[in-house]
Every structure is written in C-alpha cells, then in structure tokens.
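Forum > Structural Biology > Help requests

Title: Can anyone predict the 3D structure of CAAX protease family protein?

Hi all, first post here. I have the sequence for CAAX protease family protein but no way to get a structure on my laptop. I'd be grateful if someone could post the structure tokens.
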Amino acid sequence: MGGLTMHVPKLRPDPVTGVAALTLAVGTPMLRRAIRSPRGGTAFRRRAVELAAAWTAGAVAVRAIEPAGFELPTDLRAVVLQPAVAGAATIGVFTGGALVGARLPFVRDRMADVLDHARRGSLPIVAGLALLTGATEELFFRGALYDVAGHLGLPEVSSTTVLHMAVTTATGNPMLVLASGLLSTLAGLERAHTDSVIAPVVLHVVWSAGMLLVLPPIVNRRSDIHPGSHPRPHRGSASPIRRS
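Reply #1:
Sure, ran it for you. Structure tokens for CAAX protease family protein below:
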C-alpha cells in the first residue's frame, strides 16, 4: 500500500500575501474610524470613501502582482439574477432576526448605532456609501483575498469569512460581526459557485440596500415602545434626520 500524503498549505511569504496582509492592516483601523465617526457628519462620508479606496487599491495591487485572466461571464443569470435573489432572501432572514433581536435592548441599541448614520444624515448619501463600500469589500475579500487563499492552499470560503469577521471586530459592534460572518459565507459560496466576483458584489449590494430600507422602521418602532434604551448620540452628530 502506498504511503499516506498530507496536503500542507503553502504558507511561505510572497509579494501577493504581503500586499493582502498590508491591505488588511490598513483597512481594519479605517473601518473602525468610519463606523465610529460622528453620526451623519462629513467625517463619516470622507472615511467611508477612503475605506472603499483602500479595499479597491488592495484588490488592484494583488491583481497587478498575480494577474488572473478576466472574462465577462456568459451566463448573466448565474452571476446577477441568482445572487440578487439570494440577497433578497437574505434580507428576509435578517429581517426576521431583527424583529426578534429588536426586543432585546442590547441588540436593538447595537443595530441603532449603525443605522444612526442614515437616520441622522442624508439617507441617499449613506445608501450610496454603503453600496460603494459593500462592493469594494467584495472586490477585495471575495476577489483578491479569495484568490490569495487559494494560492496558499487554504479553503477560500472559510478563510475569507474568518478574516472578514476579524476585520469587522474592530468596529466593536457584535451585530456587525455576526452579519459579516453570515454574509461573507454566502458571498464566498456565490464566488465558489460562479467563479466570478460579480456574484458576491451583487449579493452584497442587494443586501445592503435592503437592510437600509427594512431595519430603520423596525428599530424606530421598538425604540418608541421602549424609550430611553438607545444611547445618546455621539458629540458632533448631526441632529436632523434628512431623507434627501
């Protein structure tokens, strides 16, 4: 009988791994600063754009070092329609969880912390920034980083999910960490199924848009029922709620 062979990941350092690690090291504190910016203020908008630029730069840099052939997908249904449907279904799951979680003050307050950027600022601008950062996250995590994991012989879906959750931990919001874990898993599976980064981008964008529309009424309603449970706004937050 032949001897058993064991697959050992290629964990030796190389330029691709270094660029990916550097992007994570830069993007993590940038995410923390963006989320913790004064609610609805210009600092949040600027930092969100800077964060999106960092994820994009990391993805482009990895591609420059380790070029990968890119072809437009021929089956648009697989990379656009199916992820969009999956994103809509995910919205339903998260909505159900939010309806239950909003009954708990701790969970409701953590959700409100994130939604305050939309409630105390311009919803169209915040929505645009959410879609931008969501798309660029996928370009890096399910695009470049996914390929780096494969290059190192690591499981792509679980590796990118764990790293995305680790980065999100910097926000200090456990609800965001939980959401990133669930969303990253689905996005990774979409990437694995379609072999295209377009699918996870579509999934993330649809989910982000849906959450911005669905969650505020749920959180607002529960906050009205339980007044005083939400923490006071950060100093420097814009007070009016503007929808345009």
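The CA atoms of residues 92 and 182 lie 13 Å apart. Helices lie at 15-35, 42-65, 76-101, 105-119, 123-151, 156-168, 174-194, 198-225.
Shout if anything looks off.
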